[in-house]
Amino acid sequence: MSKTRFPDGFLWGGALAANQCEGAWNVGGKGLSVADCSLYKAHVDPKDYKALHHISSADIAAAEACTEIGPYPKRRGIDFYHRYREDLDLLAQMGFKTLRVSIQWTRIFPKGIETEPNEAGLAFYESLFTEMRARGIEPLVTLHHYEMPLHLVNHYDGWYRREVVGFFLRFTETVFRRYRHLVKYWLSFNEIDSAFRHPFSTMGICEDRHPKEKLEEIIWQGLHHQLVASALATKQLHAIIPGAQMGCMVTSLLSYPETCRPENCLKAVRDNRDNLTISDVQVHGVYPPSALSAWRKRDIKIVMEQGDEEILKAYPVDFVSFSYYMSMVSSVNEAEREKVGGNVTSGVKNPYLPVSDWGWQIDPIGLTISLIELYDRYRKPLFVVENGLGARDKLVDGTVEDDYRIAYFRDHISAIGDALDEGVDVMGFTAWGCIDSVSLSTSQMSKRYGFIYVDCDDEGHGSMSRIPKKSFSWYRDVIASNGAGF
């Protein structure tokens, strides 16, 4: 039972990413993106996060040579590109107030460098947003969600090169103007802080093309370019769509000290501070002293053009959105401790928390803590735009009895209610993968998050039919009551 009625206008809904759900990878003039190189690695340990995400130059060449879906499940997705009206009807039945989606850059500018946009791509998203509005669903649109044009990877070293800022701003201006009457809420970069965890999907940096000793500096340089691009896109948005709002999107990686040993407490403070470095820049408009100190100590030199610092300061984001799946543990003896997996990284096991099928630590109280700490730090509205449970759902007699997912969401939504009781300003909640789709990290379909089951297995076999799970009606009732009781 939620302890408080959620505020009027609270944006209940779900979240999807174009590269994980749309499919139609070579339809309508779309170009190749980094996601079209993501392999299904059935043999890799789910805890080996680096191996799951690593894409080499040889992998890129193989993906470019493959003219079929092949071993690249994100090319298939769940065929949302052709089935979005059917899917929106189901989400409308649940009473969704908002749906978070993303725009594939390569549908609008197939290589990223064109001077004129691809009309077929523009028309697709215009239809998608129009159909959402017709069903009373507010679009929440991510501009850059692990969908960078592969051409920019091969010819510009991804976001490492400054020219990409200009290419991106051409894309953002195009979509802002085209959808100015359809979209009010935007996010610039999905989990922008993930650049160090998986630089290829986040910023198009192929690690084997750079000296290992320079990789950290190269990633920081790419992040600086993304931060400048985010600020300038915010400037564009406010000029083109008065009243529209831009949010940042970061990963909440709340970390507890393993014990009250001072060394563990200090490590937790540092880990939590590092986790918020990028959002600090997007909210406050300056690099925090801790980042500048780290650059000096590690001899990292970031090239900034004249005016960059003023741009960052002048155009901060309007709200802070984040993903929350699990908490972490900080230990100075990490190498000696038992590890668990996760959606973003592996870490030390917390003995007080249960784990999911994929080894994620389930910690709803951590969401309350994250909301309180983020609001205390930023004093801007917060938006929980990803939260969910990946599980091995079983379809039996035409349904999925996913009581475990209901319990997970009940606890996490209650945790948001607890934060609201503490005075935190929360705009909304979008459950991740509200329709089963291809997993980001493992490229599996068997890692299911949705309220709606999609008949497709890891190899792509199945009818793609949509089947509501037990959680479908449960979440419908939560939305109908505005979180008053569930």
Automatic annotation (TrEMBL):
User: Which Gene3D superfamilies does this one have?
Assistant: Glycosidases
Q: Where is the active site?
A: E386
Q: What's the superkingdom here?
A: Bacteria
SUPFAM superfamilies, A to Z: (Trans)glycosidases (SSF51445)
- Listed GO CC annotations: cytosol
What are the protein's GO molecular function terms? Answer: beta-glucosidase activity
Keywords (alphabetical) are:
Glycosidase, Hydrolase
Q: Name one Pfam family in it.
A: Glyco_hydro_1
Q: What is this protein called?
A: Family 1 glycosylhydrolase
Q: Which organism is it from?
A: Azospirillum lipoferum
